[in-house]
């Protein structure tokens, strides 16, 4: 029996593209999006292996119609008509690598994909997973501006930090994970990840030493997975899980609901021009940025440490975008 809510969600279903769909995050994410009753058409893109992934998923008995697109020549067709584009494309972290080490490769990938989105689906919402998110989101926004598109609905997906924080806190306080809420603000790397443990609901009672230890674990949880996989990759399944949750909230908002979500976006709540915080989303995008909330002195110290790091990585992304277009101009003139 299909619930009334499911019927409503189905009628409001949208068109979703996953760019990097054959990769470690892309495949499980594509499966989760195929399982969603909020998706009508699911377009999968990658540089190789996409037809096989699409054929495999097309055998699942859910409503989303799957099409696979492969290579740059098919990217425009993939993006045309999309409401939401999710971008996990890029290389994964390996042991000893930071997210910043991925910069040169992933920055180029994101710039190219963002440019294609600006041309073929400028009104779509972009959910960027490709690391380093602290830099790739500014890159995508600058690319949109240079192309004449509005970057207002470009989002950095930081949901995995919240998923991890809620998993770790519920383990400690015994709450059911479905009932646990832990805000995480800032960015999506190391010290820029700021868990607001004082705002956890249900609450968690810890002394300062335990608070700092849990904060550190949340900030370095990605490295924990990279080490555990021992050279075989980074967080793929948990990232797909978190991205699916974020995507479903975006689709609900596009369908006319008001949704609360956290995301790394262009922001003026701190000195950093991009920052993740609690948002209210509706069909037009960000309806309200709730800011930092009622943080304590320790959490404020984390914000103070994060902002200069964010500003540095944002500048790096913006400079890359400028160089990307300068190189394109030079190439076109030649």
What can you tell me about this protein's structure?
46% of the residues lie in helices and 18% in strands. Strands 3-2-1-4-5-6 form a 6-stranded parallel sheet, with helices on both faces. α2 (26-34) packs across α10 (237-254) and α5 (103-120) packs parallel to α6 (133-147). By secondary structure, the chain is an alpha/beta fold. The N and C termini lie far apart (62 Å).
- Could you say what the CATH topology of the largest domain is called? Rossmann fold
Radius of gyration: 19 Å
Count of distinct strands: 11
The share of residues in helices is 40-55%
* Parts with pLDDT < 50 across at least 5 consecutive residues: 1-11
Backbone shape = globular
* Class of secondary structure makeup: alpha/beta
Strand content: 15-25%
Average pLDDT over all residues: 93
Helical segment tally?
11
End-to-end CA span: 62 Å
**Major sheet size, sense and barrel closure:** 6 strands, parallel
Order of helices and strands: HEHEHEHEHEHEHEEHHHEEEH
Indicate the CATH class of the largest domain: Alpha Beta
The total domain count is 2
**How do the strands of the widest beta sheet line up side by side?**
3-2-1-4-5-6
CATH superfamily of the largest domain: NAD(P)-binding Rossmann-like Domain
> What CATH architecture label of the largest domain applies?
3-Layer(aba) Sandwich
Quick overview:
The chain is α/β, with parallel strands linked by helices.
Topology:
Elements: H1 4-11, E1 14-19, H2 26-34, E2 39-46, H3 50-58, E3 65-70, H4 75-79, E4 84-87, H5 103-120, E5 125-128, H6 133-147, E6 154-156, H7 159-173, E7 184-186, E8 193-195, H8 208-219, H9 221-229, H10 237-254, E9 259-266, E10 274-282, E11 285-291, H11 297-333
